Every structure is written in C-alpha cells, then in structure tokens.
Amino acid sequence: MTASPTVRRRRIARELRHLRERSGMTLDVAARQLDMSKSNLSRIENAQIGIKPRDVRAALALYQVTGADAEALIEIARGAQQRGWWQNYSDVLPEWFEFYVGLEAEAASLRTYEAEAVPGLLQTEAYARAIYRLTAGEERIERKVAARLRRQDVLHRENPVELSVVLNEAVLLRPVGEPAAMAEQLAHIHHVAQLPNVTVQVLPFAAGGHPAMTTPYVILGFSDDADASVVYLDNLTMGLALEEADHVRGYSLLHEKLCRMALSPADSLTRLEEASRNFA
Fold first, then answer.
1. Residue 83 backbone zone (phi > 0: left; psi -120 to 50: alpha; other: beta)
2. What are the HTH cro/C1-type domain coordinates in residue numbering (predicted)?
3. What mean pLDDT, rounded, does the chain reach?
4. In which region does residue 240 sit, left (phi positive, over 0), alpha (psi from -120 to 50) or beta (all else)?
5. Which pLDDT value is given to residue 111?
6. What is 5-80's CATH superfamily?
7. What is the band of 226 on the pLDDT scale with cuts at 50, 70, 90?
8. Domain 86-279 belongs to what architecture?
9. Percent of the chain, pLDDT > 70?
C-alpha cells in the first residue's frame, strides 16, 4: 500500500495538536516559542500546510517528547515531504481536491453514495470526458480524464481498497454522452462490481425518500488505527473534510441504512443489465 504524504501530513497535524494541548500551551504561546505565526501553526495543526521535519523536531522538544516516540513522528514527517502522483496533476486538480485524492490513495475502505453521476472510481474514459465537458468545459480535458483514471489504481493494487457504492437509480437512467458510451459505462460498473473488493448497490426509486437525498458523500477508512476515518463532501468549487467522530459515526449509520434500503448486490447487477438495454 502506498504511503500517502497527505495521510502522513494529517497524522502529524493531529499529533502536534494533541501534544500541544496536553502540554497546556495555547496556540499563541506555542507559536512564539517555535518562532512562527499563530496562523501558520493553526494551519499546520489542521493539515492545511505541511511542516518540515526539523520544525517537527523543535515542536516535539517544546512539548517534551523525546527518544523513540519523537523519532517515529519525525520519520512520519519525512514521509509527508514526499510527492504523491496526484501532485503531477496540480495543473488540473484543485488544491482542495488534491487533499481528497491523497487520502483516497491510502484508504483501506471507501463507502459512498452518489445521486446523479457515476463515482470517479467507476467511470470509463468516455463517461469521464463527457462529465468534464458538461461541468468544466474543454480546457485541459485529457489531463483531467487521465488523473481520474489514475485514481482507479486503488481498486486493483495489492491490498486493494474495499469499496461500497450505493447508486441512486437515476445514475443508471440519465444519459451522459453518446448512448454507446453510456452502455459501455453501465457494462463497466457491472464488471467492476464483481471484483471481490467492490460492492455496488442500486437504490431504486421504489424505495421512496431516504436520508441522503441532499448529500452525496464519501467515508474513508484507513488500516492504521492512528489514522482516523474521515467523511468527505464536495461540489464544483470546494471540498469539506469532516473528521470529528460524531460526523463519521452519523454518516456510517446513514450508509448502513442506504445499503438496507438498496437492492442487494445480486439484484443490483440485474438492474444494471436492464438499464444498459436502454442505451443499446
């Protein structure tokens, strides 16, 4: 599994915030001692910016953390300095979405609900291109499509991500691109859904109203207990990561409810086959 610098940065941020609070220091006091601005230290503790290993060492000394514990955190900080593959696409990936991709690259599990579009991890090249034409125009479209397809490596790597997808039935029926491309897209979902690490369920119109009607989401889980789960929400211009345990618990319960309301995985495969005939 990849050692995502984004995940490492997030862990360092959480550890430094915890250590500062345990020491009883305010942001003001700690920032002055570390010879940095309060705003910079706050951004470091919120994983908005990175921190160099030497500055981590200084912070750990301030918080009286030494020995093996300090060296382990400094090594994590070194890992956070590495470049992820997605940083090569910074010309087409907004900074707020780069953060998500960095988390996705090391996630052990992803649980998601989509109301209108096929999730990026399940999109074909033609469908992705059509989506970008509709939402962002032609500018650098091939770079954007390439980045989206590269993200799908998490499904096929050694120790692949466990993916649970609930799709609103509208996703299967709304034509995006040419009919042949839509038929190919539905066939692709049908194929990927049969991987042992992927579960796709269709939420049918017959299920009626449901608690996620206004909120597509992704819940990311990680294999290391030191990396807490996170809920990610986004739209055209911004993303929001919810890390508080109550948020994660609430969305996890929501996902469980949607899975119960949705068709079974086997019946969902049948529904995908039926829907694909609309575009034959």
1. beta
2. 16-70
3. 95
4. beta
5. 98
6. lambda repressor-like DNA-binding domains (1.10.260.40)
7. confident
8. 2-Layer Sandwich (3.30)
9. 99
Confidence of residue 122 (pLDDT cuts 50, 70, 90): very high
Burial state string for 142-161 with b = 16 or more CB within 10 A and e = fewer than 16: eebbebbeebeebbeeeebb
**Residue ranges matching CATH 1.10.260.40 in the chain:** 5-80
Q: Closest Cα to residue 251, out of 204, 276, 214, 218?
A: 218
pLDDT of residue 1: 41
User: What does the alpha-carbon distance between residue 250 and residue 202 come to, in Å, rounded to a whole number?
Assistant: 21
pLDDT over 70 (residue 29): yes
| Range list for CATH 3.30.870 in the chain | 86-279
